[in-house]
Amino acid sequence: MRSRTAEWFECKIGYEKVMEDGLQKKVSEQYVVDALSFSEAEERIIEEMSSYISGEFDVKDIKKAAYKEIFFSDDDLADKFYKAKLQFITIDEKTEKEKRSTVNYLVQAGSFNGAVKNIDEVMGGTMIDYVIYSVTETTLMDVFEYSKKQKEVDDKPEYEQ
Q1: CA 86 – CA 139 distance, rounded (Å)
Q2: Residue 161 in 3-state DSSP?
Q3: d(Cα 56, Cα 50) in Å, to the nearest integer?
Q4: Alpha helices in 81-126 (DSSP H)
Q5: Rounded Cα–Cα distance for residues 78 and 102 (Å)
Q6: Which of 3, 12, 36, 125 sits at 20 to 30 Å (Cα–Cα) from 61?
């Protein structure tokens, strides 16, 4: 398990997909990219999807994700993403009352139980008291992280690539 904090954007793309029966069907799929702005997110999703989709596709929507951190699984069967809402419990020193603050995460896992296990694995290493408020499966297809190697290739002059 590893976690990554970044500025994440959820991107919805539409294209014609060849189905198993050979027919073409218009589909919309959601992906997540690591970017600093909406324009960079659009550029990144176009770049990433160009290698997966033959033909035309449209970027239908881009929105800032409600989470800043993603828990990635090392398990090969972890092919789904779950949105998790955690509540952190603190005690107000003046009033001595319990205070809860809610934080959203995206968790990669193969099942609902796997998502809960992954949350406990990452959060178990912290000193923070927390409660898993909710875990819901998403329709996200994949997450594209920013890689330093790609940036180095992008920054090189064309004659060096």
Answers
A1: 20
A2: coil
A3: 9
A4: 112-123
A5: 25
A6: 3
Per the structure block, which two tokens stand in for 23?
């027919």
**Residues 6+ away with beta carbon under 8 Å from 144:** 31, 32, 33, 34, 44, 45, 48
Query: pLDDT per position in the chain (161 positions), as tens?
Result: 889 999 999 999 999 988 889 898 999 999 999 999 999 999 999 999 998 888 889 999 999 999 999 999 998 889 999 999 999 988 888 888 888 899 999 999 999 999 999 999 999 888 888 999 999 999 999 999 987 655 554 555 555 55
Q: How far apart are the first and last CA of the chain?
A: 34
Instruction: Return d(Cα 49, Cα 53) in angstroms, integer.
Output: 6
Residue type, 82: Y
Q: What is the pTM of this model?
A: 0.84
* Cβ atoms 67, 119 nearer than 8 A: no
Distance CA 9, CA 89 (A): 28
- Give the distance between the most distant pair of CA atoms in the chain: 67
64: helix, strand or coil? strand
8: exposed, middle or buried (C-beta count within 10 Å: 0-12, 13-18, 19+)?
buried
